[in-house]
Structure formats: C-alpha cells, structure tokens
Amino acid sequence: MLGRVGSVFVREARRQLASRHGIERAYHVSSSTLAPMFFVRPTVMEMPTRSMQHLVSWSRPVHSDLPRAYSPFAHHMSTAAAEPAEEEDATPAKDRKLATVKSGSEEKFVKATDISSYWGVVPKVQHKEDGTPWKWTCFTPHETYYPDVTIDLEKTHARKTYTDSIAYWLVKSLRVPSDMFFKKRYDVRAMMLETVAAVPGMVGGMLLHCKSLRKFQNSGGWIKALLEEAENERMHLMTFMEVAQPKWWERALVFAVQGVFFNAYFLLYLVSPKIAHRITGYLEEEAVYSYTQFLKMIDEGHFQNGPAPSIAIDYWRLPKDATIRDVVMVVRADEAHHRDVNHFAAVSPLLSLQV
C-alpha cells in the first residue's frame, strides 16, 4: 500500500515539475530516492484536511531563469549534467551566438544551447579596459601584463662547478641539431621550441607540489613561480602559432621531441632539481640569443614585419598598431626573466638536492 502511494506521489511530482518548468522529464526521481532528493513541506490550503496537502519544493539552481533541467540537491551528483530544456528557436545552430541572460543587475553570457558548468553557474562576462568583451578562453584579463623590456639581455651565468659545465655543454650540443633543422626559419624555430620550453616549469612545479604534500611543508612560492613560467611559455606558443602554421610532420616531431624531453627532464629533476634548473637557465640563454637573431632577420628585411597577432596585443597589452618585431622583443624579455629565475633556483636553499 505504501509503495503504491509512493509511486503515485512520484508521478504527481514529475507531472508538476513538467507543467511548471516546461521539462519533459524529471531526472533522478524514484520512490527510493524521493525523500533525500526533495524538500516536502506542508502548505496551507483552503481545504478541510491537510493529510495530502504537501507540495514538492524544488531545489532550484543559482540562476533560476536559465533554460535548463533542474537537478536536485547538490549532494546527489552524477557523472553528467542535466540536459538543457529544448527551446522553440528557429535560429540555426550554426548561427547561434552568445546569448545574454540578465540575472538581477548583472549581465552574463551563455551559449544558447548549453550551460557552461555542471551547476548552471554562468561565468561572469569579462571586459577589456576599453569596455569591449573579452574573447579569449586560454587566459583571462588579470593574467595580462606590461612586459619589462629593460632587463639585461647580455647576462650569462659563469660556470663555477663541474655540474655547471656539464649543463652548459649539454645545452650547446642540443643547439647543433636545432640549427641544422631550422636554419634561418626563426619563426618556425620559435613555434616548435616553445612546445618544449613549457615542459621544465610544469615538471618542476608538479614534482615540488607532490613533495610539499608528502612532507607537509611550504614550497617557498616555487610551485606557483614554476607553473606561471610554464603558462607564460605556453602563451608564447599560442602567439607564434598565429605567425607560422605548423605542418603535419612538424607536429609529429613535437610528439617525439616532447615525449623524450619530458621523461628525461622528469628523471633528472628527481635526481637533482638544481642541475635541472641550471640546464633550464642555459636553455633560456640560448632562447634569448635565438630571438635576438630573429630580430636581426626582421630588421634586415628577411622576414616580413607584419601586424602582431591580436592574442599577443591583449596578453602583453601592446598598442593596437604593434608589429611582429614588438612581439619578438617582449618574448625575448620573458625568456630573459626565465633565465634569471632558473639560475637562481639552481642555488636556492629552498630547493633540496632531491624531491
């Protein structure tokens, strides 16, 4: 008897949900999960008895005006978000742009056919300083900055120990095949080498993160510094992809080189983080030299100094009329900063001999 009454109540709950919110079906509703998934409250009605005067109070998401199927309580998570409700929209799917949804006094953007997060919380619309909408998803406005191009570009680390000499000559030996392969194509060289340059910061940050968790100790800020370095190198790649489109065999080369370099650097960092950072410091010195040669090619007219990619203008806050030469200059300054950070990490007492 109780089971039959419960099933009737479930069907009535589903019917009310569909009629009130235009939803074809209510997810996760069954007689066994009804109690923990819905608030059931008595409601005063103009009827002589209150034995059946219970209405289901739906747990609505943060933005209740969004066209979506309402999931029940937050603690009942599933592996897939609820499907959005179908809308009577004759606009073709390919022509649907970002739709504006007003929530109180705040405007938010969502895709016309999708919700951007599991809980239905739409990300806040971000704008540039001039008020125009922010169009990039690979970085946010607070990650942009004005580069310091006054940094000393001629600085090099003098070899003092035998490990310094090993790191120095190892990097010099790696430059030989690079020069033979790329020759004077510095735009392609920059794009391809940035796929490798972002590896040391990520490997170091990851291993220091694990070390901090194992030993219950602070990293002294090195985790964040190294991960920011890796992200900065990745943005270099995103920029040069707009300048030189990689060919299929160059993409295949990235798979091979990155796979070998990642595992080799990972093992080296496990043995000695300081030697690994010394090698990275010398790699950055070579990067500074390569970008200096790139600038000479532009100044001599061997490479067209076209307009800077829009992603570079927004990331480094460059002027609207910035050129490729301006981009190379700020990237070279970034590499010089990475050079100093890694050479300092090689002698930092916060980085022990082993992770």
Keywords:
355 residues; mainly alpha; Ferritin; two-stranded antiparallel ribbon; 10 helices; 48% helix
Layout of secondary structure:
Blueprint: H1 2-21, H2 34-37, E1 39-42, E2 54-57, E3 98-103, E4 106-111, H3 162-182, H4 186-197, H5 199-215, H6 222-240, H7 248-271, H8 273-299, H9 310-315, H10 324-345
Antiparallel strand pairs: 1-2, 3-4
Short description:
With 355 residues, the chain is mostly helical. It contains ten helices and four strands.
Radius of gyration: 29 Å
Please list the strands of the largest sheet in the order they lie side by side: 1-2
Global outline: globular
What percentage of the residues does DSSP assign to strands (E)? Answer: 5-15%
For the record, the CATH class of the domain at 184-352 is Mainly Alpha
Name the helicity range.
Answer: 40-55%
Query: Ranges with pLDDT <50 over ≥5 residues?
Result: 20-115
Report on this structure.
Helix 3 packs parallel to helix 8. A hairpin with a 2-residue loop joins strand 3 and strand 4. The N and C termini lie far apart (65 Å). The chain is mainly alpha-helical and 355 residues long. The strands form two sheets. Strands 1-2 form a two-stranded antiparallel ribbon. The protein has a two-stranded antiparallel sheet with strand order 3-4. It has a domain at 184-352: Ferritin, CATH 1.20.1260.140. It contains ten helices and four strands; from the N terminus they run H-H-E-E-E-E-H-H-H-H-H-H-H-H.
